[in-house]
Amino acid sequence: MRPLALLPRPGRARRAVLLCAGVLTGGVFGLAFWVDRFGRRERVTDADALVVLGARVLPGGVPSGALVARVEQAAALYHRGVAPWLLLSGGVGAHPPSEARVMLQLAVAAGVPASACVLEEDSHSTEDNARFSARLLRERGARRVVVVSDPYHLLRARQGFRRQGLEVATSPASIAGRMRAVDRAYWTVREAFALLLHPRLLWARAPGGR
């Protein structure tokens, strides 16, 4: 075996690749840790509106477990008096009707009056959720919101809504019994990659820089 000192040094290109790989790996797992820690905490404050982010609708218009859990959490907050109305955000995915319309049915079944629900049915991404919801919120004079979604989704969602100039608190929907630890880890790392691919989100601050 050749002594380490006599081994050829890697070329500049190879060193650059190794450095980038190290930075990327550290960045992803560092962000994943932040995503996970952030999503585990309840950050509810009194707000002008509750914003519920959509999730998959199954064939026949059946709500996915994520969709049910998000609406149940928002309904509980509504009944606690956190906010006077709900904005249900989600367009038509692989199966109609829209996520928002399915959430409306769930919300009414959970005791939320239909008159206290506003639908946003055009969005197909978290960025859409924030942009289209912000327009409806401003039309109704809402500036402070509580965003409800799965825990691993909340950091990116909060940053997206902050970029729209809103004051944002977050509330995690329960994933107990519907998501294995390995699945949660996968989605958490996936969210970290999404944040790395959209670094402008990381710099979003609350109105007034808070």
UniProtKB/TrEMBL annotation:
Pfam families the record matches: DUF218 (PF02698)
DUF218 domain segment(s): 48-192
Membrane-crossing segments per the record: 16-35
Domain of life: Bacteria
UniProt keywords, alphabetically: Membrane, Transmembrane, Transmembrane helix
GO cellular component, one term: plasma membrane
This protein's name: YdcF family protein
Organism per entry: Corallococcus interemptor
